[in-house]
Specification:
Layout: E1 3-5, E2 9-14, E3 21-28, E4 35-39, E5 48-50, E6 56-57, E7 64-66, E8 72-74, H1 77-85, E9 91-95, H2 108-117, E10 119-121, E11 127-131, E12 135-139, E13 142-147, E14 153-159, E15 167-173, H3 178-183, E16 189-191, H4 192-200, E17 213-216, E18 219-220, H5 231-244, E19 251-252, E20 254-258, H6 262-273, E21 279-283, H7 286-289
Parallel strand pairs: 4-9, 11-19, 14-20, 16-17
Antiparallel strand pairs: 1-10, 2-3, 3-9, 4-5, 6-7, 7-8, 11-21, 12-13, 13-20, 14-15, 17-18
Pfam families: LpxC (PF03331)
Function: Catalyzes the hydrolysis of UDP-3-O-myristoyl-N-acetylglucosamine to form UDP-3-O-myristoylglucosamine and acetate, the committed step in lipid A biosynthesis.
Cofactor: Zn(2+)
Length: about 300
C-alpha cells in the first residue's frame, strides 16, 4: 500500500548554492497525491511544483524543478532519495526559499527524521513502473541506462583524476532498506579546483567542509575524512535514486550510470517516457511491494553518523 509521513516534520539549514538559510517542512498527504513542493515565500502566483521529471530544468550541479510561473526549487535530489528510500509515496514539502537545505551533504538527516516521525500506510495500492526493454542516453563519455530487472538495482561507475577518488564501481539492490544502511550517509563531493571556480561564479555559496567532501589531488580536505572508502560513488548512487524518483512512482528495473549526473538521469527518464513500449505501470501486490525501496526499513538501520 502507499505511505505518507505520520506527522509534519521540520528542517532548517543552508542552501548549498544560494548560501541562504531555509526552513522546510514535510507534511503528510493523501493517497495518490504524489510529492509536491510549495514555496511559502511566494505570495502571488503559483507557488506549487510537482516533483516530476517533466518539470526539471537542466542543470549540471543539482536537480532543479520549475513551474509554468517561473518558480523554482533547487537541490531536491537528497530529500527525494530519502523519500524513496523510506517508502514515502505522498508528501507536501513546504519551504521558504528557492533551495532545499543541504544539511550535512547527504540524505541521512532526512532519513533519520522521517523514520523517527514514522511512516503510515494508506488505503491505496502502490503503482510501480516496470521496465520492459533497455533505454539509454549518452553524452560524450557519460551513459545512463534503464534495463529490465525484478527490483530497482543501481550500478555506477565514476572515474576522476584526483587520486582521493579515482575509479570507483558499485552495484546495489535498493530493496530491504539497503539505501538506508548503505547509501544515505554518503555526502556530496567536489574537487577544490571546482569549488574555487564555483565560488568565482557565485555558486556553492553555502558549501563548507562540513557539508561536502572536498578533495585536492590525493588529499581529503574535509575534517574526519571519508565515511566510506567509496563514499563518492555511493553518493552518485544516492543522487540517482532521488532523480529516478521524479518518475512519479518506484521503478522496477536496473539503472546503470557511467560518469552520469543529474541532467543525464533526467534525460534518461524523458527517453523512457517517450517510448511507451519500454515500460508499463503495475499494481504492486505484496511480493512486488517487498522488493521496493523502503519496504521493511526500520529506524535501527540508520548509520550512526545520522
Amino acid at each position: 500500500m502507499q505511505n505518507t509521513v505520520r506527522s509534519s516534520i521540520r528542517f532548517s539549514g543552508t542552501g548549498l548554492h544560494s548560501g541562504k538559510t531555509v526552513h522546510m517542512t514535510i507534511h503528510p498527504a493523501s493517497a495518490d497525491y504524489g510529492v509536491w513542493f510549495r514555496r511559502t515565500d511566494i505570495l502571488l502566483g503559483d507557488a506549487m511544483l510537482p516533483a516530476r521529471w517533466d518539470v526539471v530544468e537542466q542543470t549540471a550541479l543539482c536537480t532543479r524543478i520549475k513551474n509554468t510561473a517561473g518558480v523554482t526549487v533547487s537541490t531536491i535530489e537528497h530529500v527525494m532519495a530519502a523519500l524513496a528510500g523510506t517508502g514515502v509515496h505522498n508528501a507536501l514539502i513546504e519551504l521558504d526559499g528557492p533551495e532545499v537545505p543541504i544539511l550535512d551533504g547527504s540524505a541521512a538527516e532526512f532519513v533519520r527524521v522521517i523514520l523517527k516521525a514514522g511512516v503510515v500506510q494508506q488505503n491505496e495500492t502502490v503503482r510501480a513502473i516496470e521496465i520492459l526493454r533497455p533505454v539509454s542516453v549518452t553524452r560524450g563519455d557519460a551513459t545512463a541506462t534503464l534495463s529490465p530487472a525484478d527490483e530497482l538495482n543501481i550500478e555506477f561507475h565514476i572515474d576522476f583524476e584526483d587520486a582521493a577518488i579515482g575509479v570507483q564501481d558499485k552495484s546495489l539492490g535498493m530493496a530491504n532498506g539497503s539505501f538506508v544502511r548503505e547509501l544515505c550517509d554518503s555526502r556530496t563531493f567536489c574537487r577544490k579546483i571546482d569549488v574555487d571556480q564555483m565560488h568565482a561564479n557565485g555558486l556553492a555559496l553555502g558549501g563548507t567542509l562540513e557539508n561536502a567532501v572536498v578533495v585536492d589531488g590525493a588529499d581529503i580536505l574535509s575534517p574526519g575524512g571519508l565515511r566510506h572508502q567509496d563514499e563518492a560513488v555511493r553518493h552518485k548512487m544516492l543522487d540517482a535514486l532521488g532523480d529516478l524518483y521524479l518518475a512519479g512512482a518506484p521503478i522496477l528495473g536496473k539503472y546503470t550510470g557511467i560518469r552520469a549526473g543529474h541532467s543525464l538521469t533526467n534525460a534518461l527518464l524523458r527517453e523512457l517516457f517517450a517510448n511507451p513500449d519500454a515500460y508499463r505501470f503495475v499494481d504492486c501486490d505484496r511480493t512486488i511491494a517487498a522488493r521496493l525501496p523502503g519496504a521493511g526499513v526500520h529506524f535501527g538501520e540508520i548509520p550512526a553518523v545520522a
